[in-house]
Amino acid sequence: MYNGRKVYAIVLAAGSGRRMHSKTKKQFMEILGKPLFSWSASRFDHHPAVDGIILTTGEEDIPYMKELTGTDGVCPLQKLAAIVAGGKERYNSVFEGLKKVAELEKLDTASPDTGMTSSGTQDPLIMIHDCARPLLTDAIIDDALHYAEKYHAAVIGMPVKDTIKVLDADHFVKETPERSSLWLMQTPQSFDFSLIYKAYAAMIRQDESGRLMIPVTDDAMVVESFAGQRVKIIPGSYENIKVTTPEDVKIAELYMRKSSENG
């Protein structure tokens, strides 16, 4: 718990990893002897503030995920609350995870903006994390929870280092935005349950009716667009990389070895 509020981490592990050029799905690829998803899931599992972990994965992979995370598995998770089937898109998987939290906590999703559970306790805090970011730290989790509680919506990120160019359809420069205002978004992205559920429910309704006109790329965008909520961006780490290509695996392993050497 965090200041009397339940904390759930939704760890997204339902991708295919096409850019890894591997027959093994990315979430199950080994990095230094452990499946990719387990690095961040284990970090949440050992953090004292986290009460429950929801893993989303492909429906066909649920038995394998249960095997890996069970008591006798290679990455047992004591705080694993549920493994749920992910959806077609990332946002579908997130919503499945949110629905599972609502079910476990018996939350009144018919009026999710009350900020209270059916039993009158406080709104849970939700952290949504891509398992492809294995270099999660306790400090990042601490900051994510602190600022989510303070501002209701908080996202980990880092300032861009390079000049960014906006191109036109013919790949000529159209605009050079001011670099100081540009940040790279990372995860976890953290919210009051009532806020993130309300925003996702509205987006899913629009999607199912065929009226979703914007590409949804992260959770902050959902609460910005569908709940009108300002999102606090807080510094994370340049080492909190997303493993997307084989080159990223090598970089992640270097950071992990360095972290191990530093204790």
List the helices and strands and how they pair.
Layout: E1 7-12, E2 30-31, E3 34-35, H1 36-46, E4 52-57, H2 62-69, E5 80-85, H3 90-105, E6 125-130, H4 138-151, E7 153-159, E8 166-167, E9 173-175, E10 183-192, H5 193-208, H6 219-227, E11 232-235, H7 246-261
Parallel strand pairs: 1-4, 1-6, 4-5, 7-11
Antiparallel strand pairs: 2-3, 6-10, 7-10, 8-9
Walk me through what this model shows.
This protein has 263 residues and is an alpha/beta fold. The chain has a single domain, classed as Spore Coat Polysaccharide Biosynthesis Protein SpsA, Chain A (Alpha-Beta Complex). It has seven helices and eleven strands. It has helices at 36-46, 62-69, 90-105, 138-151, 193-208, 219-227, 246-261; strands at 7-12, 30-31, 34-35, 52-57, 80-85, 125-130, 153-159, 166-167, 173-175, 183-192, 232-235. Strands 5-4-1-6-10-7-11 form a seven-stranded mixed β-sheet, with helices on both faces. α5 crosses α6. The longest helix is centred in the middle third of the chain and has 16 residues, at 90-105. It is globular and about 55 Å long. The protein starts with 6 loop residues before the first strand and ends with a helix. The model has no long low-confidence stretch (mean pLDDT 92).
